[in-house]
Q: What sequence folds into this?
């Protein structure tokens, strides 16, 4: 099951990046005037919940591979794993906030929630690319 981790993660990164970018744009640039932008972000966020859980499961499965354990050091593997789990938890926690508090959220809080999610996504992706460089 660990061999599917890159496939799941790259699809997840695309969805969750555009979701958090859309949230940020919805709350800052468009000042809540474009409802379809929020609906697009919300749909991507909903799909990303399932994919982020699947990415963590496949990541744990891939981390147990003897070749991976032999080739990588804890210095590279641990931050990617921790930020991946943190991104999954943040995706799960921020979904109901955007769902329930859509109209009540001030533009600053909406922008902060979107930017924090985008930052976690980028950090997880960077540490994943560092791991990928070790194998190629």
A:
């Amino acid at each position: 099951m660990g061999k599917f981790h890159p496939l799941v993660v790259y699809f997840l990164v695309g969805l969750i990046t555009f979701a958090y970018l859309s949230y940020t744009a919805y709350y800052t640039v468009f000042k809540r005037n474009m409802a379809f932008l929020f609906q697009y972000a919300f749909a991507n966020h909903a799909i990303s919940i399932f994919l982020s859980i699947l990415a963590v499961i496949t990541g744990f499965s891939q981390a147990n591979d003897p070749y991976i354990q032999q080739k990588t050091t804890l210095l590279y593997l641990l931050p990617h794993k921790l930020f991946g789990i943190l991104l999954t938890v943040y995706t799960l926690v921020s979904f109901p906030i955007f769902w329930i508090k859509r109209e009540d959220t001030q533009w600053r809080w909406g922008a902060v929630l979107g930017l924090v999610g985008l930052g976690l996504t980028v950090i997880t992706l960077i540490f994943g690319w560092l791991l990928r460089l070790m194998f190629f």
In short: Residues 35-63 form the longest helix (29 residues).
